[in-house]
Specification:
This is Proline dehydrogenase. Keywords: Oxidoreductase. This protein has 311 residues and is an alpha/beta fold. It has eleven helices and eight strands. It has an eight-stranded parallel β-sheet. The chain is globular. The two termini are 24 Å apart.
Amino acid sequence: MRQSGIGTILDYSVEGEDKEASFDATTAEILHTIDKAAGSDTIPFSVFKVTGVASSDLLERVQRKDELSEEESAAYERARERVQRLCAHAHAKNVRIFIDAEESWIQGVIDELAYEMMQQFNRDHAIVYNTYQLYRHETLEALKTAFLNARQKGYYLGGKLVRGAYMEKERLRAREQEYFNPIHTSKEATDTDYNLAIDFCLDRIEYVSICLGTHNEYSSQYCATKMQKLGIGRNDARIWFAQLLGMSDNISYNLAKAGYNVAKYVPYGPIDAVLPYLIRRAEENTSIAGQSSREFLLVKSELKRRGIGSL
């Protein structure tokens, strides 16, 4: 990837654990990824999930504003301190760090933590990035509100724009618990909001840094065209594209060849801990089946072009 101008994002994909020792171990590992990225021209970002360093059940109780026991309050403070430690270390090493998005019933408290960290560490430029899931109908307005709050409080907004990876889980829970489904009713609505989010950020690029975490060709082309219209350089450090390792190489390698900033997410960790992450990506991203079929045809066509066999 380095030879092709593509960066690596080391993604320690342990999540959903419920033991303090596991949270501390995950924090230590993410600190190592920050150290690995420091001063590197091939590792542009670090990343973590808050559920890797905090109990998801506890986060849900905090978001619901339940009354916490003394023990729960202490556990949440420890979780907040882990997030603080990660972001402070990233700031000290000048390494940009993504806080990944999660389920809607804990995303609110994750957002609060992300903006608290941004206010501390994004004073000169974006170090901490929150993640915006545009398959949720309220996310575009949330992004706009986050920008206004950042301007009012004097810090830069960092945003990773994704569509989302919890769709079936979100719909099932909304149906079972009889509340309004937070997911758009159509893919077209999601695509529209995603591209509007690109517009919003690029039009305010002086104060916003973004990474497009997408396997969607049209949105990638849309962003590239918009950058050209606005006179933004292809290698502007405030704009990145990212895809998962092993997926959408046609997007990644062509963007990199054209001079855009591109990185691949590289999930790693213990097999039993990482498999749930990988399975969720396969099961809940309904575009993967069509995308994989298309990539198979692209590989087959390229093999034929090179005259080295067929699949």
